[in-house]
């Protein structure tokens, strides 16, 4: 019996048998990899087969490199030299087509990564909005650069230009939004892209392939399938990648960088691991802190780089905090992503429950207890969130980024304790600070802003809104992403300068009047 409501059923298998290279959806006849969902469609649990994707290798990887390299053509290609307004038109064409794929992509987000219906819709809509905002921001950047400045007898028009070929790799937890937060600014700034979808959340790219193909000139966007080792490695080894844009873990980022023969030429735009702490001060509003810590640690089962991954609670309030926090965790509903009122959903990685169990076993063997009744309960594709207390530095869960449903709680007496731990940590993305007394909070904020890149006062950590800078210190990031900053991360300042004399000025004026140059141009795009 099929237990899935009709509108969310997968009517037929999605056999992805094409890949996008050099402006063509090429047929794939080689080896394939099945794509399973950990969600069961039958009463007796079994993973659901969703379809299959190509298992590509070096040949296809190098084909994509060649296509992107030709599209850039050392900066002489059609795309990097195109008028800003024309690149924007291509992007608008893409997003218009993309909007028609919403229900299909949302359905696949639920099946492939288990994201709730509401959050899947949010991911799609946020991505569309991100594209429109990026277009507006690019127009503004263009308008601000559309003039000459005269300094020390030199006239200059300073703009931003593309860097070259981008290898774009996104994470499975936001396979659409985070990937596109790299892909879209990279493209719009004039760079050709090679994109390989994440390990989960692959089939949801299929409905977008035709939109990509028909919106951009050939070779500007190339989409490959397969494993990182087989596909991304040859791309990097070719030495033709100018930007590695990756949201994922530092191990893969380092391995890929190391394969580039000319590392000095490689720009990095990376969003990596984090272990964001919450610090709950004695005067914190406990209702608010608990509500924010629940959302912060467990939305999308804790599979967010911005998730709260360790809670520091002042010893004077820990008993009360734990009691109320644990009972709120147990009240969370587990179910399939389309079910009403669910906040906990199947884990897309089938090995994740065992990994989380390993963290629990390690912590409990070293003195922690699971303080919520349902903590650690297993089902076929899930492990119920365990709240672990008290945590110490001997435990794996103190150090490892769990990226899943387990919440470690640690106490402190003196605020210097969490500060020292954060200073020692390899991560430095964000922190949540709960408290009220400004005499305590003021000096703390002044320190915390230097330990991480965003201090969330009385609220959980998050990336959005996308106009704010998203970055991190130490091993958590390289470069900054936001609508504004990403345009800068994927481009370089470049300009035309000439001595201020009649001879040169006449030429510049003629260039401006003729509109022959796409660079020396003062057109405003409204
Ligand atoms: O996985 C990390 C994401 O950047 C988190 O974004 O805070 O919007 O969930 P979010």
TrEMBL record:
Taxonomy, superkingdom: Bacteria
UniProtKB keywords: Oxidoreductase
One function term, GO molecular function aspect: oxidoreductase activity, acting on the aldehyde or oxo group of donors, NAD or NADP as acceptor
Pfam families, alphabetized: Aldedh
Gene3D superfamilies, alphabetized: Aldehyde Dehydrogenase, Chain A, domain 1, Aldehyde Dehydrogenase, Chain A, domain 2
Domain Aldehyde dehydrogenase per the UniProt entry, residue ranges: 38-491
Family classification: Belongs to the aldehyde dehydrogenase family.
Protein name: NADP-dependent glyceraldehyde-3-phosphate dehydrogenase
Taxonomic source organism: Flavobacterium psychrotolerans
């Amino acid at each position: 019996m099929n237990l899935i409501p009709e509108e969310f059923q997968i009517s037929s298998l999605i056999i992805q048998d094409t890949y996008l290279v050099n402006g063509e959806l090429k047929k794939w006849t080689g080896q394939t990899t099945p794509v399973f969902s950990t969600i069961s469609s039958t009463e007796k649990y079994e993973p659901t087969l969703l379809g299959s994707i190509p298992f590509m290798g070096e040949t296809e990887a190098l084909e994509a490199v060649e296509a992107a390299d030709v599209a850039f053509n050392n900066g002489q290609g059609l795309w990097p030299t195109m008028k800003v307004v024309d690149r924007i038109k291509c992007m608008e064409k893409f997003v218009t087509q993309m909007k028609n794929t919403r229900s299909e992509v949302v359905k696949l987000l639920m099946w492939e990564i288990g994201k709730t219906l509401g959050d899947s819709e949010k991911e799609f809509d946020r991505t569309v909005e991100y594209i429109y905002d990026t277009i507006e921001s690019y127009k503004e950047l263009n308008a601000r650069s559309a003039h000459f400045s005269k300094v020390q007898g030199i006239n200059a028009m300073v703009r931003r230009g593309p860097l070259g070929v981008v290898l774009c790799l996104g994470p499975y937890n936001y396979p659409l939004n985070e990937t596109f937060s790299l892909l879209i600014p990279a493209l719009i700034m004039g760079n050709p892209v090679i994109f390989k979808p994440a390990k989960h959340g692959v089939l949801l790219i299929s409905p977008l392939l035709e939109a990509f193909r028909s919106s951009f000139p050939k070779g500007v966007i190339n989409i490959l399938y397969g494993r990182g080792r087989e596909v991304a490695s040859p791309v990097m080894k070719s030495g033709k990648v100018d930007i590695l844009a990756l949201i994922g873990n530092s191990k893969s980022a380092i391995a890929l960088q190391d394969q580039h023969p000319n590392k000095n030429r490689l720009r990095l735009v990376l969003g990596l691991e984090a272990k964001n702490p919450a610090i709950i001060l004695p005067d914190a509003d406990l209702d608010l802190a608990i509500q924010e810590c629940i959302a912060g640690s467990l939305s999308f089962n804790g599979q967010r780089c911005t998730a709260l991954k360790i809670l520091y609670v002042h010893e004077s309030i820990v008993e009360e905090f734990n009691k109320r926090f644990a009972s709120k965790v147990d009240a969370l509903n587990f179910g399939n992503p389309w079910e009403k009122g669910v906040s906990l959903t199947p884990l897309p990685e089938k090995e994740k429950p065992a990994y989380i169990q390993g963290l629990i076993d390690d912590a409990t063997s070293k003195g922690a207890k699971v303080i919520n009744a349902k903590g650690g309960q297993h089902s076929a594709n899930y492990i119920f969130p365990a709240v672990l207390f008290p945590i110490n530095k001997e435990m794996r869960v103190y150090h490892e980024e769990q990226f899943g449903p387990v919440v470690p709680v640690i106490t402190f007496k003196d605020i210097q304790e969490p500060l020292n731990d954060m200073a020692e940590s390899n991560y430095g993305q964000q922190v949540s600070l709960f408290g009220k007394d400004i005499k305590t909070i003021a000096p703390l904020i002044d320190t915390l802003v230097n330990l991480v890149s965003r201090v969330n006062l009385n609220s959980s950590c998050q990336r959005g809104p996308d106009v704010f800078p998203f970055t991190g210190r130490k091993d958590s990031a390289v470069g900054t992403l936001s609508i504004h900053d990403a345009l800068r991360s994927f481009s370089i300042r470049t300009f035309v300068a000439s001595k201020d004399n009649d001879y040169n000025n006449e030429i510049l004026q003629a260039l401006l009047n003729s509109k022959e140059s796409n660079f020396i141009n003062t057109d405003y795009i409204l």
